[in-house]
From TrEMBL, chain A:
Entries under InterPro entries matching the protein: Bact_solute-bd_prot1, SBP
The organism's place on the tree of life at top rank: Bacteria
Natural source organism: Actinacidiphila acidipaludis
Region (Disordered): 45-74
Protein name, entry field: ABC transporter substrate-binding protein
Family: Belongs to the bacterial solute-binding protein 1 family.
Keywords recorded for this protein, A-Z: Transport
Positions with biased composition (Low complexity): 45-70
UniProtKB/TrEMBL annotation, chain B:
Disordered: region residues: 1-31, 179-205
Organism (species): Actinacidiphila acidipaludis
Subcellular location as annotated: Cell membrane
Record's keyword annotation contains Aminoacyl-tRNA synthetase: no
ABC transmembrane type-1 domain mapped to chain residues: 97-451
Protein name as catalogued: Sugar ABC transporter permease
Alphabetical keyword list: Cell membrane, Membrane, Transmembrane, Transmembrane helix, Transport
Length: 476, 461
């Protein structure tokens, strides 16, 4: 098992983008294995909070810290809390600052465990072993549903709920709920509707940031004429292709259809899918616009697709992916984000609005303890979001947070686009789908869109394959 | 990895099992003593740890896998043999079965053959041991690391993948590259794409006026060194003239179709005059981009043949749908030929020299000695190596999982990988996964039996 995980990560360096790769690669291993031994889950929850009963709230050191924050946190002296999330490296360091502040305010001792590649397996075994972490950040929406059904996660307490209601738009609240109960807070999210570009290549071609898909294609054409490969696509990783499709589909067909397709209540053979794929083929099918042609794109994994825009003797001009590209550019290339590497929102397709596709980690309580609820309350608060944002590489959907907390303009603009989308943003469709369809290398949507990239003329064939795989994975 | 497949380990484990029932539940009831005088309970006591371990680690998993293969994905509903039906009707799994067959036939054969050749040849080389060391070295690398190495070896990009670097280097030695790969005119200009990647003007050329041929899509840093400013061609009364140039100025400030200052000439572009599909004249553009065609070209369409623009040769798509399995098998052979070589070399050491000498004295040439003496004498060793590799290959997983890129993973699929994918790779159907496991077991059994029989025979000898 260990070796399998390692192999998934083969061409990835330690960086935030890494996490995203993992996240989408993640396989819900625990599903079956868990059923047999899950008995211990319920029993252990009660053990941790019988120590300290409240009544000391008045003396708690939480008493608001600047900015008139009215955040009340209980005194948790002597309590130990464990937090699990996928983050490593700079993302982990950044989050540790939030935990440190929590410790300072409550007196609790928090520790952090990275869950590694297969999050649901990792947490599943911990639950079975009777030692789940107090709070976990789940990277996949589907895992939240799965864990809620099993009773492994606990609904939010009133304090945490209050923070959530005050700071988050209904769209984000809804994502953290399941079957009428609010389980989680989407405290750290990503904006996956961004196109990063090489400012020098744009300058050389005399191109400007396009606002619509038609402009985007025209810009790409102009850039080609200047002798620069216009668009770099990381087709060796199927998830980048699903994100391409999702952006086009969300903008073109609208949020309602997007939801239906995500739930598979309409089929992939639907005419809207056909239109979206045809639109996508305008790019994929034009070998001049794709760096290295389809074959080059299929051979480039996500890291390579980014580096080949900002390094080498003939760098490409644009690469599509989420905000995490920023950290990747800083870590792996000499380009400076904001000057050499710039970003514009994914263009609007057809008559639709510019899409905002997002992903995120949802904080949930895995124990019925006061500490876990207190930590969730803190995570949902604006105070925590500010500390978190200050470290960079972080986006919060917290609408109460002042945008000035972000360290630079690039990050601020990305956040602005996310907040501005209000409730029209949509969660990454492939992360909502069963892993067999939306999250497995060489299978389902990943593979079908790779085949589509190899042969963009065959829209109907791609649709048929997508539908067949979806039907199998959704079990309908 | 190698532990389970080595004949010693495998044979030992299975061979031990049938021996145990005898002393444990001896007939007749009363205390009986074996030849050594040990009471059965003592024998049982000593055997107990091994039996418990074997039971827990080998017997129980096998039984449970068979049991599990009869249940559905959730593990609660009994479905009989339906999972096996799925295995044999799923298109993807059938590919895995076919690929496994290819693997089992090709990989051990090639590895053994190479090992044999290496072993025989190194025997007579002074630096044989050093050579053997080098060939055996890949065995010291884990399958996983080897997989990562070969993923790089097979990388499409010649500047990253050594396989394609070689192929491209060889290819480029024999064919010259086009001057301006990937270049083309602007869409909707006078030059339109025509058959075979060439571009032909819609209008016809005439003497006295210059026919300019603008091209785009060439990076400034890919222009030949010392490319000059493009010059408008002077009209000549008795010739068709014009300029071929890169119709793009940095910053995108140039006018399409106009030779702006700062726009570079494209030298060495072949221009053909075509009348009714026949080339009537041809010329090459000069240093300043101008070309001159004789007056016979008047009234002809101008064509830029595809040879100007042929894309750079990009090497072989090693991990494409058709080559991915052979490529992975090659990496397996790289790893395991050394193993075969060492075993065969050991066997070779035991071959009586006199027989070889005798044959040579009798006038056999080296090939005959090899074919008629060495190989037959080595046959038992060769069988051991082949069988060992076969068992090893049947359960091949890591190399395929790592080397095959996502898009062609299904083309490279093998049973062990499918087992993993079905059980844990998103589908989470451990029923089907177990069914594949059972099938793998059934496939390994005959080879195992052959191996055990052979070991018994050796033991009797």
């Amino acid at each position: 098992m260990l070796s399998l995980n390692t192999s998934k990560d083969r061409s990835l360096e330690t960086n935030p983008a890494h996490r995203v790769v993992r996240r989408t690669t993640r396989i819900a291993l625990a599903a079956v294995a868990a059923s047999a031994l899950a008995l211990t889950a319920a029993a252990c929850g009660s053990s941790s909070d019988d120590g300290k009963k409240s009544g000391q709230n008045s003396s708690s050191p939480s008493a608001s810290k600047g900015n008139g924050s009215s955040l009340q946190l209980p005194d948790l002296h002597g309590q130990k809390l464990e937090v699990a999330a996928v983050w490593t490296g700079p993302e982990q360091a950044n989050f540790m600052k939030v935990l440190k502040e929590f410790d300072k305010r409550t007196g609790a001792k928090t520790s952090y465990v990275p869950t590694g590649d297969s999050q649901s397996t990792f947490l599943g075994t911990k639950v079975e072993g009777g030692a789940p972490p107090d709070v976990a950040f789940l990277a996949q929406n589907g895992v939240l549903h799965q864990f809620a059904d099993k009773g492994w996660i606990k609904p939010l307490g009133p304090e945490a709920q209050a923070q959530l209601t005050a700071n988050f738009s209904p769209g984000w609240q809804k994502l953290g709920a399941w079957k009428g109960k609010q389980y989680g807070i989407y405290a750290k999210v990503s904006n996956k509707s961004l196109i990063w570009y090489n400012a020098a290549a744009f300058g050389n071609a005399g191109a400007s940031e396009p606002k619509t898909w038609a402009d985007f294609l025209k810009t790409a054409e102009t850039i080609f004429e200047s002798g620069t490969p216009p668009v770099s696509i990381g087709g060796a990783d199927g998830w980048t292709l699903t994100d391409w499709f999702e952006n086009i589909y969300l903008s073109q067909a609208g949020p309602d259809m997007y939801d239906k397709l995500a739930a598979h209540t309409i089929k992939w053979t639907d005419p809207t899918v056909k239109t979206a794929l045809t639109t996508l083929a305008q790019l994929f099918g034009n070998k001049d616009l794709v760096d290295g042609g389809a074959r080059g794109a299929l051979a480039a994994d996500f890291p390579k697709s980014v580096t080949q825009v900002f390094t080498g003797s003939s760098p490409a001009a644009m690469v599509y992916e989420g905000d995490f590209v920023s950290a990747f550019i800083s870590g792996n290339t000499k380009a400076k984000v904001g000057t050499d590497a710039k970003v514009f929102p994914f263009p609007a397709v057809g008559t639709g609005k510019p899409p905002v596709v997002s992903g995120g980690d949802v904080a949930v309580a895995m124990k019925d303890s006061k500490g876990a609820q207190a930590l969730l309350t803190f995570i949902g608060s604006t105070d925590a979001a500010k500390i978190w944002a200050g470290g960079g590489g972080y986006l919060s959907p917290n609408k109460s947070m002042d945008l000035s907390a972000y360290p630079d303009d690039v990050q601020r603009n990305i956040a602005k686009a996310l907040i501005a989308a209000g409730d029209d943003f949509r969660f990454d469709m492939s992360d909502q789908a069963p892993a067999a369809f939306g999250g497995t290398k060489g299978e389902g949507e990943w593979k079908d869109l790779q085949d589509f990239l190899a042969k963009p003329s065959d829209v109907a064939g791609a649709q048929a394959k997508l539908e067949a795989d979806a039907a199998k994975a959704y079990g309908s | 990895m190698a532990d389970a497949s080595l004949p010693g380990a495998g044979g030992g484990a299975v061979g031990a099992a049938p021996v145990t029932p005898g002393p444990v539940k001896g007939p007749g009831g009363g205390p009986r003593r074996s030849i050594m005088g040990t009471p059965p309970w003592l024998a049982a006591l000593f055997l107990l740890p091994a039996l418990v371990l074997l039971g827990a680690l080998v017997a129980y998993p096998i039984v449970y896998t068979i049991h599990r293969s009869l249940y559905d994905a959730g593990g609660s509903g009994f479905v009989g043999l339906k999972n096996f039906g799925t295995v044999f009707s799923d298109h993807g799994i059938l590919t895995a079965v076919r690929n496994n067959a290819i693997w089992v036939v090709v990989a051990p054969t090639v590895a053994t053959a190479l090992g044999l050749v290496f072993a025989v040849l190194t025997e007579r080389v002074r630096w044989g041991t050093a050579f053997k060391l080098v060939v055996f070295m890949p065995m010291a690398i884990s399958m996983l690391a080897a997989g990562i190495i070969f993923r790089l070896v097979y990388d499409q990009d010649p500047s990253r993948g050594v396989a394609n670097a070689v192929v491209v280097a060889v290819h480029d030695t024999f064919t010259s590259n086009a001057a301006y790969p990937g270049a083309r005119p602007r869409p909707n200009s006078d030059l339109a794409p025509t058959a075979g990647g060439s571009y032909t003007s819609k209008s016809t050329a005439s003497v006295g006026t210059s026919a300019n041929l603008p091209l785009v899509g060439i990076p400034q840093n890919k222009l030949p060194a010392g490319a000059q400013q493009a010059k408008p061609a002077a009209p000549k009364p008795d010739a068709v003239t014009g300029t071929v140039w890169l119709d793009f100025r940095p910053g995108g400030t140039g006018k399409p179709g106009v030779i702006d200052p700062g726009e570079k000439a494209l030298s060495g572009v072949k221009v053909q005059a075509v009348k009714n599909g026949k080339v009537v004249a041809s010329a090459k553009s000069g240093k300043d981009g101008t070309y001159t065609l004789p007056s016979s070209a008047a009234g002809a369409q101008l064509r830029l043949p595809a040879s100007n623009f042929a894309e750079k040769y990009n090497g072989i798509n090693w991990l494409g749908p058709s080559l991915v399995t052979p490529s992975i098998i090659a990496s397996y052979v790289w790893m395991w030929a050394g193993f075969a070589m060492v075993l065969i070399a050991a066997g070779l050491a035991g071959v009586p020299r006199e027989l070889l000498e005798q044959a040579r004295v009798d006038g056999a040439n080296e090939w005959q000695v090899f074919r008629r003496i060495t190989v037959p004498l080595l046959a038992p060793v060769l069988v051991v190596v082949m069988v060992t590799l076969m068992i090893n290959v049947l359960k091949i997983f890591d190399l395929v999982y790592i080397i095959a890129p996502g898009q062609t993973q299904s083309n490279a699929n093998v049973l062990a990988l499918q087992l993993y994918l079905s059980s844990f790779g998103g589908g989470n159907d451990q029923g089907v996964g177990s069914a594949i496991g059972v099938i793998l077991l059934l496939l390994v059994l005959p080879v195992m039996i052959v191996n055990i029989r052979r070991l018994r025979r050796e033991g009797r000898r």
